[in-house]
Amino acid sequence: MPPNATSPDASTALPMPKDLSELFVPSMRGHLKSAFKSVMGNPTLAMINMAGGVPHPSTFPITHLRATVKSPSSHSAPHSRESTLDLAKSCRSQSTESLDELLQYGDGCGIDSYCAFLRKYTQRVHRPRYANWGVIASCGNTDAIGKTVSLFCEPGDSILVDRWTFPGALSSLASAKVLPAPVPMDDEGMIPEALDSICQTWSGSTPPRAIYLVPTGQNPTGTTMTLARRKAIYLVAQKRNLAIIEDDPYYFLQLPSAPLPSHSLRGAEHSDQVQDLVPSLLSLDTDGRVIRLDSFSKILAPNLRCGWITAPTYILDKIQILNESTILQPSGLSQGLISKLLNDAWGFDGWDAHLRELRAVYTLRRNLFIQAVDRHLAGLVEYTVPTAGMFLWMKINLGSAAADPTAMPRLLGSMKKCGVMMAPDMPFSSSAMEPAAADRYLRAAFALVDIDMFEPALKRLAQAITSVRDARSSATHLNAN
Ligand SMILES: Cc1ncc(COP(=O)(O)O)c(C=O)c1O
After folding, report:
1. Are 336 and 351 spatial neighbours (Cβ–Cβ below 8 Å)?
2. For ligand 1, what atom is nearest to the CA of residue 140?
3. DSSP 188-243
4. Mean pLDDT, the chain, whole residue set
5. CA–centroid distance, residue 164 to ligand 1 (Å)
């Protein structure tokens, strides 16, 4: 059991989670243990432990690590003070392990101080409504998706997913030979009635046991489920006894909704406390059927390769075993740096301030991008203003060229020639069916390029769309003659 797990504590009066282990694939049921550990058991302190192939820390050449970090409000106050994080060879800091401990082999749960911060933060933000939950370290959500899916699906099984979804999840399903069952979406994400109807009319051999979804700033559609939508999806999951894999890397990037303030673009005028974010599915979960995946990729840096999974501890026990047969745990250096930053340098207040800053940065980018889209692409695209994340999902108006199945490939070719790249829709499709040419999308990410590039990028896109529309209409014209 992860060391940070809550014990069944009568004083909190929280119910125990339901036992959903019947949803596990047969190989994940029962008590799993690594073969080595089940033979060795847990060494006591009195034992002279010569069992493991563990190097002596005196052989570790890294003896000190120093990182300089920005203040959490460095975007709004560029001259605010930086701080220094020091990890020393053999002495623990305030609350973080020594370098020797961070660099040594560890179990499949993760570094204690890293998980302890994330458990406390999860309690503060999501307030799980059952006892015996915990967190476990992951190497980010891509890794966590594969592991959680493998608890509920084996080759040939299906899993319910958004009609458009994260390609990393689709490749993870493909390599596990798990079939995506697409659920229609609208402006608020997965449609609960459609989800229920798919379950009701399921005709395949094994009915799905889990839903995979991205509730906030969905990739690629940018949709964010309202509270009412989240509750409705949760009710269907209860009715149909489904586990929910809540992949939520954009949760902390919730942005104020339209109308957009054209005069003041910082978005700071809307109330922006962690408590004001749309509640997660985890926070609505009374049964313990949500496995929540969080990642530091979009809120610290992607190649730290660190995230965390929150779930009832009996589910985390399985993920611990899966970690121990694959990654063991994310790099101790990454976990140690994050732990030191969050526990010792920033604390809850600094972390909240950092996340608020990120929301202001992305609000500004989203607003400027949409203004530029309206200037250059009026009549050429349709979109819904995203209220989280970093994506604008644009339905392309190909005019009379929409009847032509080659229009989309021609558009991509034309975009290349014009010198602009955005993601086409098909890699996000969970359905094997090619959409009608009149129903095609591009995903623009407004997170990375310089804001100065928004205008030229959208001018080029307008040129590319217009050239495809014009080419088609002149072809039609020639045929008519
Ligand atoms: C919905 C979704 N899940 C997961 C990931 C990958 O996250 P990580 O870097 O934590 O593996 C992404 C990244 O684009 C994403 O959009």
Report:
1. no
2. 10
3. TEE-HHHHHHHHHT--SSS---EEEE--SS-TTT-----HHHHHHHHHHHHHTT-E
4. 90
5. 14
The pLDDT value given to residue 1: 62
Locate all alpha helices (DSSP H) within 79-219, ordered by sequence. Answer: 99-103, 112-126, 141-152, 167-175, 192-200
Range with lowest mean pLDDT among 222-231, 343-352, 433-442: 433-442
* Ligand 1 atom at minimum distance from 143 CA: 11
User: pLDDT band for position 375 (50/70/90)?
Assistant: very high
Q: How far is the CA of 142 from the centre of ligand 1 (A)?
A: 6
Share of residues in the chain with pLDDT > 90 (%): 77
Nearest CA to ligand 1 atom 10: 140
CA of 195 to the centre of ligand 1 (A): 23
* Contact of 156 with 333, CB cutoff 8 Å: no
Pocket (CB within 6 angstroms of ligand 1): 140-142, 166, 168, 214, 219, 247, 249, 295, 297, 302, 307
Helix (H, G, I), strand (E, B) or coil at 441: strand
Give nearest CA residue, ligand 1 atom 16.
219
- CA of residue 428 to ligand 1 center, whole Å: 13
How far is the CA of 31 from the CAs of 1, 3, 23, 34, 181, in angstroms? 12, 18, 15, 10, 30
Task: List 164's β-bridge partners, or say none.
Answer: 429
pLDDT digits (tens, 9 = 90+) for 83-110: 899 999 988 877 899 999 999 999 999 9
- Reported in sequence order, the residue ranges of 255-355 that DSSP labels E, i.e. its strands, are 290-295, 307-312
**What is the whole-number distance in angstroms between the Cα of residue 249 and the centre of ligand 1?**
6
Q: What domains can you pick out in the chain, each with its CATH number?
A: 94-356 (3.40.640.10), 365-480 (3.90.1150.10)
Best probe residue, ligand 1, of 172, 223, 253, 295 (max atoms within 8 Å of C-beta)? 295
Please state, in angstroms and rounded to a whole number, the distance separating the CA atoms of residues 413 and 394: 18
**Locus of tokens 């030979």:** 177
**Which comes out higher in pLDDT, residue 77 or 337?**
337
Cα(203) to ligand 1 centroid in Å equals: 31
Using CA atoms, how far apart are residues 83 and 96, in angstroms rounded to an integer? Answer: 16
Tokens of 385: 């203003």
Q: Tell me, what's the pLDDT at 403?
A: 85
Cα 404 to ligand 1 centre (Å): 34
pLDDT of residue 199: 98
Q: What atom of ligand 1 comes closest to residue 296's alpha carbon? A: 10
